[in-house]
């Protein structure tokens, strides 16, 4: 009895949603967003204040002029995740993004963890952007606002609360919440306005850099460093210089810069949360993700090129790179354009950060994993009004009171976890048989016709007895279309690969010196890991893929999803122990919500045994008895 209860409880944790959109989710929100709206949303979310700050920080201390290559590597890494989101956005055109994708693939508990962390990531992101908007505006006024607030409402709780309550950020978040309540089309219109202004300013910066820039700044030598210090051999005042030339800090500098630049491309996933509000989601979501990532790469590439051409990389001010660059070339009035662009970027980024939060909350509440009242839709605006107001108030309070700089890494964990699960989902779903039973569209005659064919297919796929025969059947499957057995093989291999890649990333992140110094134990373990990863990847590659046509499919499966998982997990391993401890506290709160409410109110109560799949047992259950 105990074993049966434990088994039943475990089945609840892994129950999955049908791959197809459900009837209840098809007509809830208004389909009013076109491809241009989604592109503006993605670009606005991604091109925040980082484009005005990040290039200076990376160019000065990590990559030099080779920052353009760092952005190229980071863009290619981000594209790996973007392609996975693009395929699933076309497969499941509903609200929820990574939460929904993991729900239909991995299971309910994993989906809840994903959604719970997405909520935290988006809320922290929105609050951080609101604080940055307030700080930027304050600096333009000579810091009068912060001085008054510090003198009147100083807070004295270190490591938790900010130095003073930010009333400006609080009001800004509440204002944006009001815009989001008005409707998705109104929010998209405001986003397009700010994103367009931001792109206009960034285009001016790029053109200015190529007009006033000097190509010699990409070919600096030791002689230039001595001239910068008035002929002195002591160049320590210039900061880290490297070896000169276009790549002063070597290949390692490019990779260290790329790890930082990767976060500059975070934000495109908000496009996937609008799947239920897009007019043609199967087409516009993949196209929107790919185009927005391409635009962001061009802008980052152009701004970093312009910056390093306008002045030597060692003279860049990491806190205010672009205004200082324009002062260096004698274009002081251009600093006002930079200020306008920064505020526009922050405005569109704030809208982009707050837009997906209520969609994820709504999707989880609509599935019964969060409180049902959060799934309420406004009758006129067709927006998730309850989720929008709750998420807006939460973000406003965080922007008002908390010190958010210590929570930015926590936001990154949630984002990278979501990216990894989407890549895993693509890897698994591509090799699964059709899930037609979720639609309830097959007639009794169709089922009876399919059953003999399926049984024959299953008999053909049974391998001969013996270890060698089993391995041979794994590498040379008989069937050309996925079967339930081949789907289970891929699922198991994918889980094992995720574990092995996590161990590999842990070795690379925590013991790189032992690995590259030739330590026999560490080197041997790494080589064996790589061989095992390659072998399991080969087994997955040999399995038959689902031939169902889609508007977009990730190329190079299984390699591309596995590379995406590797990059994301490696970056997660760079986080500090304190960040992981904060993550643990948030997860304890989440588990209390899930086991206290979600697991008992889930709408997938009738699918505790197995997710809908085309197998003989499922067919037997759907054929009426005589």
Q: What does this 3D model show about the protein?
A:
There is one protein chain. Helix 3 (35-46) packs across helix 10 and helix 9 (167-182) runs antiparallel to helix 17. It is globular and about 80 Å long. By secondary structure, the chain is mainly alpha-helical. It folds into 2 domains: 46-429, Amino acid/polyamine transporter I, CATH 1.20.1740; 436-622, no CATH class. It has 26 helices and no strands. The model is unreliable at 436-465 and 608-626 (pLDDT under 50). It starts with a helix and ends with a helix. Helices cover 67% and strands 0% of the residues.
SSE layout and pairing:
Layout: H1 2-14, H2 23-26, H3 35-46, H4 50-63, H5 67-91, H6 98-105, H7 108-140, H8 144-152, H9 167-182, H10 184-212, H11 222-228, H12 250-261, H13 281-310, H14 321-328, H15 334-354, H16 356-366, H17 385-401, H18 408-429, H19 444-460, H20 467-475, H21 484-510, H22 512-516, H23 520-542, H24 559-572, H25 577-601, H26 616-622
Helix pairs in contact: 3-10, 3-13, 3-15, 4-12, 4-13, 5-12, 5-13, 5-18, 5-24, 6-7, 6-18, 7-9, 7-15, 7-16, 7-17, 7-18, 7-25, 9-10, 9-17, 10-13, 10-15, 14-15, 16-17, 18-21, 18-24, 21-23, 21-24
Shape: globular
Number of strands: 0
CATH class of the largest domain: Mainly Alpha
Q: Termini distance? A: 33 Å
Q: Going by CATH, what is the homologous superfamily of the largest domain?
A: Amino acid/polyamine transporter I
Summed up, the helix count is 26
| Structural class label | mainly alpha
- Average pLDDT, rounded to a whole number, is 82
SSE sequence, one letter per element: HHHHHHHHHHHHHHHHHHHHHHHHHH
Helix fraction? 55-70%
What Rg is obtained from the alpha carbons, in whole angstroms?
A: 26 Å
Assign the CATH architecture of the largest domain.
Answer: Up-down Bundle
Number of domains: 2
CATH fold node name of the largest domain:
Amino acid/polyamine transporter I
State which percent range the strand residues make up.
Answer: under 5%
Largest sheet: none
Low-confidence stretches: 436-465, 608-626
């Amino acid at each position: 009895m105990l074993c049966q209860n434990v088994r039943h409880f475990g089945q609840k944790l892994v129950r999955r949603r049908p791959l197809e959109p459900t009837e209840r989710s098809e007509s809830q929100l208004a389909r009013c967003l076109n491809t241009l709206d989604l592109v503006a949303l993605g670009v606005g979310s991604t091109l925040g204040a980082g484009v005005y700050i990040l290039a200076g920080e990376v160019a000065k201390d990590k990559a030099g002029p080779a920052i353009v290559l760092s952005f190229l590597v980071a863009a290619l890494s981000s594209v790996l995740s973007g392609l996975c989101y693009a395929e699933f956005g076309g497969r499941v055109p509903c609200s929820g993004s990574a939460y929904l994708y993991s729900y239909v693939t991995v299971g309910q508990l994993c989906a809840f963890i994903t959604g719970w962390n997405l909520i935290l990531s988006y809320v922290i992101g929105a609050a951080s952007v609101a604080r940055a908007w307030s700080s930027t505006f304050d600096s333009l006024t000579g810091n009068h606002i912060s001085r008054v607030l510090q003198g009147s409402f100083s807070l004295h709780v270190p490591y938790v609360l900010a130095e003073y309550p930010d009333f400006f950020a609080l009001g800004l978040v509440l204002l944006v919440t009001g815009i989001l309540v008005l409707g998705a089309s109104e929010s998209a219109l405001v986003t397009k306005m700010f994103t367009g202004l931001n792109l206009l300013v960034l285009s001016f910066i790029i053109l200015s850099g190529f007009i006033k820039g000097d190509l010699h700044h990409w070919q600096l030598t030791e002689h230039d460093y001595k001239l910068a210090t008035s002929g002195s051999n002591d160049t320590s005042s210039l900061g880290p210089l490297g070896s000169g030339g276009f790549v002063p800090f070597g290949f390692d500098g490019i990779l260290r810069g790329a790890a930082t630049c990767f976060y500059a491309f975070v934000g495109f996933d908000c496009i996937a949360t609008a799947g239920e509000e897009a007019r043609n989601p199967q087409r516009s979501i993949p196209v929107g993700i790919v185009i927005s990532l391409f635009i962001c790469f061009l802008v980052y590439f152009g701004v970093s090129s312009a910056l390093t051409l306008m002045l030597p990389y060692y003279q860049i001010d990491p806190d205010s790179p672009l205004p200082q660059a324009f002062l260096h070339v004698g274009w002081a009035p251009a600093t006002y354009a930079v200020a306008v662009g920064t505020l526009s970027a922050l405005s569109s980024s704030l809208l982009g950060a707050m837009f997906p939060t209520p969609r994820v909350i709504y999707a989880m509440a609509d599935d019964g994993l969060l409180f049902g009242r959060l799934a309420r839709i406004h009758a006129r605006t067709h927006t998730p009004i309850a989720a929008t107001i709750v998420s807006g108030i939460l973000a406003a309070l965080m922007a008002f009171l908390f010190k958010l700089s210590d929570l930015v890494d926590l936001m990154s964990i949630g984002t990278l976890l979501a990216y990894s699960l989407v890549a895993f989902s693509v890897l698994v779903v591509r090799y699964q048989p059709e899930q037609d039973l979720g639609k309830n569209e097959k007639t009794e005659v169709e089922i009876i016709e399919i059953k003999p064919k399926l049984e024959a297919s299953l008999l053909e796929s049974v391998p001969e007895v013996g270890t060698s025969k089993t391995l041979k059947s794994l590498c040379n499957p008989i069937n050309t279309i996925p079967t339930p057995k081949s789907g289970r093989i891929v699922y198991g291999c994918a889980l094992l690969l995720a574990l092995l890649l996590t161990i590999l990333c842990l070795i690379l992140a925590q013991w790189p010196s032992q690995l590259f110094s030739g330590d026999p134990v560490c080197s041997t373990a790494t080589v064996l890991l790589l061989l095992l990863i390659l072998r399991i990847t080969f087994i997955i590659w040999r399995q038959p893929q689902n031939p169902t046509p889609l508007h977009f499919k990730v190329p190079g499966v299984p390699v591309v999803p596995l590379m995406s998982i590797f990059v994301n997990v490696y970056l997660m391993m760079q986080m500090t122990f304190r960040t992981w401890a904060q993550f643990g506290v948030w997860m304890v709160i989440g588990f209390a919500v899930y086991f206290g409410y979600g697991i008992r109110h889930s709408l997938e109560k009738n699918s505790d045994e197995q997710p809908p799949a085309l197998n003989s047992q499922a067919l037997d259950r759907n054929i009426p008895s005589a």
